[in-house]
Design goal:
It is built from eight helices and 16 strands. It has 262 residues and is of the alpha+beta class. Strand 9 and strand 10 form a beta hairpin. The longest helix is centred in the last third of the chain and has 13 residues. The chain starts with a strand and ends with a helix. The relative contact order is 0.12.
Length: 262
């Protein structure tokens, strides 16, 4: 698991280009999903707009760098409506009060930890009210990530942990291990349509999203530029839907990537 502050300032490296594209400036949290949805990238080469990487397009989140397949993984947030909505919500988590559902003050959030593979917020570290000792709250007791307040279940005290290692141990003990999930992804990738050598890198990268999208349910409507529904909330992504969205342009494919269940 990664502390959010450990990610800020990391260089972004494009594998295909073999160069540094910029640095991570901030993280954009989706409070409904309890996850980091985008990483905002800063570079002196860009004069206009806000550039970011959708978390699902990140290849690796390491100690020294964030890696992406190519520069095409960095998008202008103006192209993705949901990204602007999340930026406006401005969920920071740091220095946010934590209260229970019935209004009891538990303390103040200091930091949050995310899963490097999924971007899900795994835990929040906080200082209990009236104490200087730091404790950990696992994400499954969080009801709401708000701009000013985090709301947790009334029995949150029963789930307080002493360290992030306790959370990591609980993850290890879950029924489906990371090795099993990796095997599932490998199997899905083998079933993906092949891409001819003549396709450019961006098309190749888009097609690699195929096994990660087909079979998943859409969590919100996806509209075309005229406001017509392309894919409705609750639909299951099929091969036809994948190509339909892909033909609408790369921004719509990225929107689909964001709007499917994990």
């Amino acid at each position: 698991m990664k502390k959010s502050r450990d990610i800020i300032g990391l260089p972004v490296i494009s594998i295909a280009d073999g160069k540094e594209m910029g640095t991570i400036k901030s993280l954009v949290v989706n409070p409904d999903q309890g996850s980091v949805e985008f990483m905002v990238v800063s570079s002196e080469e860009w004069e206009l707009g806000i550039k970011a990487i959708p978390f699902k397009l990140i290849v690796g989140l390491g100690e020294f760098a964030v890696t992406i397949e190519s520069s095409s993984s960095i998008i202008d947030l103006a192209e993705i409506p949901i990204a602007n909505e999340l930026l406006a919500k401005n969920i920071q988590i740091h220095a946010t009060r934590i209260i229970t559902r019935k209004g009891r003050l538990m303390g103040q959030a200091e930091e949050y930890f995310l899963d490097e593979e999924t971007g899900k917020i795994a835990a929040v570290s906080f200082r209990p009210h009236g104490s200087e000792e730091q404790k950990i709250l696992p994400e499954d007791i969080v009801l709401t990530f708000g701009r000013e307040i985090i709301v947790v279940s009334e029995d949150a005290d029963d789930h307080v942990l002493n360290s992030i290692e306790d959370v990591e141990q609980a993850e290890v003990e879950k029924p489906e291990s990371r090795e099993q999930m990796a095997a599932s992804v490998e199997t899905a990738t083998a079933a993906a349509p092949s891409v001819s050598d003549g396709k450019d890198l961006e098309e190749d990268f888009d097609m690699r999203q195929f096994p990660f999208l087909v079979g998943k349910k859409v969590t919100a409507d996806i509209l075309d530029d005229q406001g017509n529904v392309l894919v409705a909330k609750g639909d299951t992504v099929t091969e036809d839907i994948f190509h339909k969205i892909r033909n609408q342009g790369r921004s719509k494919l990225i929107e689909l990537t964001i709007k499917v269940e994990d």
